[in-house]
Design a protein that fits this description.
CATH architecture of the largest domain: Up-down Bundle
Strand order of the largest sheet: 1-2
Structural class: mainly alpha
Radius of gyration: 31 Å
Order of helices and strands: HHHHHHHHHEEHHH
Shape: extended
Helix content: 40-55%
Length: 315
């Protein structure tokens, strides 16, 4: 059971309305790395978690992310308050109101469709989608994804802090940014509390492929480092050594029963190309300057056109 406390987790102080800034802040309201995405990711993971410690952690953080959604949403609402009132009461001249609505981003959409309240979109107006939730149900996989999500959210908050000079907003965004750091630390601890946390899943990798580094991008700019060289790696620079990998010939085959094979053979026979046929085509008939090489024979089409073009150029 959820219960709402009317006090925000962090006090919101907005110096003045700014619809353009409100649009940018929507990135952390309904964007892929925003607070709603985080809350839904951790909440659904928590519901499916079998380990009591991780379940408790995930539900705690999911609930806090909803609190963060309320904080960032309140900032957006305050930034839109002025234009909301002006639009509702028609207190500005039409031209001034139009300019205010289009001050930046999708502030006009927020004001017209959502009454100035925060919309479940990113900063470009793209609606929030559950596709942002990338859980897979394996704790080591999901915890690594959560760590990355907190890292991305922290960077977005940094960038938002850099585009406003409102001290109250900077203060609140700094709090939200810092909580991303704290959550990342918690997820890191939870990940490494699992003794065998790599690779994810149950099945072991095939050792000779797990140790293989394939240098598929060769030339100037090649760099050696611990990610591709050293005793941990069997580095492959000659791709012929691993093309194809495994014991096959690199082809693709399928086993078919006799009846199906007969049908496939008939299809192949009916649609077979004759490499000896070089038919006149629409390209030949309609070719003009710049068409490249076409049929050499003069069919009264392409060759005549090319000859005429050559004559015209000579003149």
């Amino acid at each position: 059971m959820f219960m709402h406390n009317k006090r925000l987790q962090y006090t919101v102080r907005v110096a003045e309305p700014n619809p353009a800034l409100a649009s940018l802040l929507l990135e952390q309201f309904g964007g892929p790395d925003g607070e709603l995405s985080a809350a839904m990711r951790y909440f659904t993971q928590g519901l499916g978690e079998l380990d009591p410690g991780r379940k408790d952690l995930l539900i705690d953080i999911a609930t806090e992310e909803l609190s963060h959604l309320e904080v960032i949403g309140s900032i957006i609402a305050m930034l839109n308050t002025g234009i909301k009132g002006q639009l509702a009461e028609a207190s500005m001249a039409e031209a001034e109101l139009y300019m205010a609505l289009n001050a930046g981003g999708d502030s006009h959409t927020q004001s017209l469709l959502y009454g100035g309240g925060p919309s479940l979109t990113n900063s470009s107006g793209v609606p929030w989608t559950a596709a942002y939730v990338d859980s897979r149900g394996d704790p080591t996989c999901d915890l690594r994804s959560n760590i990355a999500a907190e890292s991305r959210a922290k960077i977005v908050y940094e960038r938002l802090i850099n585009i406003t000079d409102d001290p109250g907003i900077k203060d609140a965004l700094g709090f939200l940014m810092t909580r991303e750091i704290a959550h990342q630390k918690s997820f890191e601890k939870a990940l490494y509390a699992i003794e065998d946390n790599f690779p994810p899943g149950k099945l072991p990798g095939i050792e000779r492929f797990a140790n293989m580094y394939v240098n598929t991008s060769q030339g100037e700019g090649d760099v050696d480092g611990p990610w591709n060289s050293g005793e941990q790696w069997d580095r492959i620079d000659d791709l012929d050594q691993v093309m194809p990998a495994g014991d096959g010939d690199g082809g693709a085959t399928v086993g078919l029963d006799k009846k199906t094979q007969g049908v496939v053979d008939k299809l192949a026979e009916r649609t077979q190309s004759d490499p000896a046929v070089d038919a006149e085509t629409g390209v030949d008939l309609g070719a003009g300057p710049g068409a490249g090489r076409v049929t050499d024979e003069d069919f009264g089409g392409a060759a005549d056109i090319q000859e005429a073009a050559a004559q015209a150029k000579a003149l």
